[in-house]
């Protein structure tokens, strides 16, 4: 009989046949699959991502018929996690940039209270804070980091070192909220989601993360996409601030979370 685990690792993947097998093997070698199940959300890849992923042990693969986008892939993974009763979700990229050593650190941080005895709802694996190894980024990305970091600080009063990290740990309440309609960006859920969750009162913690440069495949932010991303994200952050700070659209949904029975592992 399969032992129920309390952690689900969600890995969105699009044309990552060259990188994802090694990542999944590393998760097994590091014994992470002893306490976490792995779910790969294959977003209608045109290469052999689905086939090579299914060859690995301890991995469930969900393949989309059409390309839905990064955010939609994650949100479907959240729905899967809620229906299966996982207590925590850790999301990481399929391109090999997120070292598997970060998984246990995120998991422990989710279960460790702060000085006030409170647990975080979201733990971010940050590239740009004390304790993080050196990580080189392009000038365009540096500008984006500074812009989004300042927008979040002005909008919430909270300083976030790495507002666009895709390496995150989420507790059950956060996953449930994200899984619902209009609570999650279907394309680029980054700094805008951090702004949203801070304004709604979710507790966010950052920890240093070990990350590597991509060596294979094509980034979803290649070509002119970074400029489209920056334009879209800037307006999305502003829209989120108006939605949560002025219109207070999601306040009622936060109150409803307390009425959902928490599923135990």
Task: Considering the chains and any ligands shown, give keywords for the structure.
alpha/beta; Spore Coat Polysaccharide Biosynthesis Protein SpsA, Chain A; 7-stranded mixed β-sheet; 265 residues
Structure description:
α2 (49-54) links the parallel β2 (36-42) and β3. The chain has a 7-stranded mixed sheet, with helices on both faces. The protein has one domain (7-259): Spore Coat Polysaccharide Biosynthesis Protein SpsA, Chain A (Alpha-Beta Complex). The chain has 265 residues and is an alpha/beta fold. Helix content is 39%, strand content 14%. It starts with 6 loop residues before the first strand and ends in a 9-residue tail after the last helix. It has helices spanning 20-29, 49-54, 70-84, 101-110, 139-156, 172-178, 191-199, 225-246, 251-256, and strands spanning 7-13, 36-42, 59-63, 88-91, 122-126, 168-171, 204-208.
């Amino acid at each position: 009989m399969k032992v129920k685990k309390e952690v689900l690792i969600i890995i969105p993947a699009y044309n990552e046949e060259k990188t994802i097998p090694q990542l999944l093997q590393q998760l097994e070698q590091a014994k992470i699959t002893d306490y976490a199940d792995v779910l790969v959300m294959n977003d209608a890849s045109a290469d052999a991502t689905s086939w090579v992923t299914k060859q690995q042990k301890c991995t469930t693969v969900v393949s989309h018929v059409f390309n839905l986008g990064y955010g939609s892939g994650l949100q479907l993974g959240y729905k899967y996690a809620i229906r299966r009763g996982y207590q925590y979700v850790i999301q990481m990229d399929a391109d090999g940039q997120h070292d598997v050593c970060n998984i246990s650190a995120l998991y422990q941080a989710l279960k460790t209270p702060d000085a006030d005895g409170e647990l975080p709802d979201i733990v971010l694996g940050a590239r740009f804070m004390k304790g993080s190894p050196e990580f080189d980024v392009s000038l365009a990305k540096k500008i984006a980091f500074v812009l989004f970091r300042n927008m979040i600080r002005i909008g919430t009063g909270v300083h976030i070192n790495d507002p666009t990290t895709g390496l995150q740990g989420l507790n059950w309440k956060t996953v449930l909220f994200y899984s619902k309609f209009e609570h999650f960006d279907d394309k680029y859920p980054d700094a805008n989601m951090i702004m949203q969750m801070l304004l709604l009162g979710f507790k966010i913690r950052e920890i240093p993360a070990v990350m590597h440069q991509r060596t294979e495949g094509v980034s979803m932010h290649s070509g002119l996409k970074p400029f489209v991303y920056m334009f879209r994200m800037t307006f999305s952050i502003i829209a989120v601030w108006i939605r949560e700070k002025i219109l207070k659209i999601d306040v009622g949904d936060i109150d409803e979370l307390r009425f959902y029975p928490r599923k135990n592992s």
